[in-house]
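It is worth pausing here to work through a concrete case rather than discussing structure prediction in the abstract. The textbook approach is simple: state the sequence, then state the predicted structure, then interpret. We follow exactly that order.
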Amino acid sequence: MVPAWLWLLCFSILQAVLEAQLAELSVEVPENYGGNFPLYLMKLLLPREGAEGQIVLSGHSGKADEGPFAMDPDSGFLLVTRALDREEKAEYQLQVTLETEDGRVLWGPQPVLVHVKDENDQASGHQATATVEVSIVESTWASLEPIHLAENLRVLYPHHIAQVHWRGSDVHYHLESHPLGPFDVDAEGNLYVTRELDREVQAEYLLQVRAQNSRGEDYTVPLELHVLVMDENDNPPVCPPRGPAVSIPELSPPGTEVTRLSAEDADAPSSPNSHIVYQLLSPEPEDSVERRAFQVETTSGSVTLGGLPLRAGQDILLLVLAMDLAGAEGGLSSTCEVEVTVTDINDHAPEFTTSQIGPISLPEDVEPGTLVATLTATDADLEPAFRLMDFAIERVDMEGTFGLDWEPDSGHVQLRLCKNLSYEAAPSHEVVVVVRSVAELLGPGPGPGATATVTVLVERVIPPPKLDQESYEASVPISAPTGSLLLTVQPSDPMSRPLRFSLVNDSEGWLCIEKVSGKVRIAQSLQGAQPGDIYTVFVEAQDADEPRLSTSAPLVIHFLKAPPAPALTPAPVPSRYLCTPRQDHGVIVSGPSEDPDLASGHSPYSFALGPNPTVQRDWRLQTLNGSHAYLTLALHWVEPREYIVPVVVSHNAQMWQLRVQVIVCRCNVEGQCMRKVGRMKGMPTKLSAVGILVGTLVAIGIFLILIFTHWTLSRKKDLDQPADSVPLKATI
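Step two, the predicted structure:
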């Protein structure tokens, strides 16, 4: 069960929360206000998230009747739009909420009670009534104090203000006013004012009352009464009309005068009713002077800048309250408006968006006028005239290699090449471009961002390689063996830079080219080729140091009918040996020495390994000259034994097959072959030697076992014999 004190505590907290939420604000408005409208009444403390919603003003309990009231959405002030009459309605109940567009309440409702202040427009106001009685023995009127009448009295007229009396029976009263005013007197000596008085029209009247008999003769000199019209402070201060916006330059120092307000009050100039003081309403003043953007001098109405800096482009509406009676309670007021525009000054130096550009590579043969780079600069000033920029190359370019091109109203500048480049003269350039404001800069000087460095690298231009022929042709029999040399591709200048060769479009894979020497050979059997067919590939040559520099030439292969198989006349090749693992020596293979063409200096022999894949894997054949080739091992290790290596020798459409006998063996440190020898007669084999050794060891073991057994049995027999049976030893 919940204790009673806990219920009371929860109830009191809930009640306090509800009372805090429904706390009502109140404000007073003088009736028949004659000042400027709208009249700002009070500022509501809206939450900071007010920018997300809209301020809604309604009548009591959310009704739509808000009367002659409105809300300023920018400043949060509650204002009245016309004069109010207490006799018509004495108070207004309003409520203010902050809502979203879909009607969701973000804050509120905040109730506000507006009281219409009674100005006593139905009472007699300040007035004076005088009754004059003069003794009969006196011949003159008694002197009277001045009569004070309030201006603009809202009473029934004629209104009684004084009474005079001359003792006697035959007395008639006659009234004269200087200047002529709304006054009258009746037969009983009662003085009346017949209408409202206005101090601005006439502040003082002199009344003369004559006491006469029936014949129109004065009993005595006229009675003089002074009537003073009292100022009732019925004229609120009148603000000067809102003129054009006042321009204040950005970065103006604190204390700079923005404007000077001079409100006018139609009340008596020397009375407190016309004593006007000023108070800043919006922007709402801060406690600290350094945090104020504006401040108002109370008596003079001078609006000056505070310590809070302003930003260029701001449009600010100042609301200044002008109050008479020196701001005392009961005085009238008007709200003066001053529009202030913060104008821009040239206080921002232009800066480049990027301070380092490049490196940018340009070939030394690039044409002058080529665009090198485009630089972009920005200026934070708002005035277009202050954003005009001037560009220049900071470091003196004596040769005028580079130049700048830009539009006057653009923040983009183009760096262009003006002269030819030379790698030998200058392999690189650093161009420093500086930007300045065309107008005079009033703020801080240019910072590091006012310069940009463009790094240009000059690329050396190397002519592309050139071959000794524009195209190549070769004829080959379809029976040509693998490895046959077709031709050699060479540069046109033997002293030129080294080239690297490759074949392009070799769809059948019949050909291959040595990367360095440029020799074109048959890579595999020409299977599928027919006599009369033409096979075209391209030879591509690239610069060894600059691969981007290359050239190509077509290579046309004409396939010929296979010649009749010539009789192979293998030359005698003596048996030779090679070491495994492989060492740096091989076997020299020579062509037939009796060939007359070779002796006469005609075309050389062509050497190639046989078509067997195993042979081509295990062996390598390198041509030494036109008559000899060098045969070596291709693998690091091959099985030691005797090999027959087929070598095909071709010359002028004739072919020979050499069977080179090579013995592969293990070698000693001196490179001499260690041959495997056979078993000598009469010498035991390994198996027989092992058998003899094992048999000998077994025989020795059996002999040792017999000796040990015999010794054991003898010892046991001696232990079992009785003591008396032991023979006595003879003593000699």
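Step three, interpretation. Residues 23-117 form a domain with the Immunoglobulin-like fold (CATH 2.60.40.60). The two ends are 135 Å apart (CA to CA).
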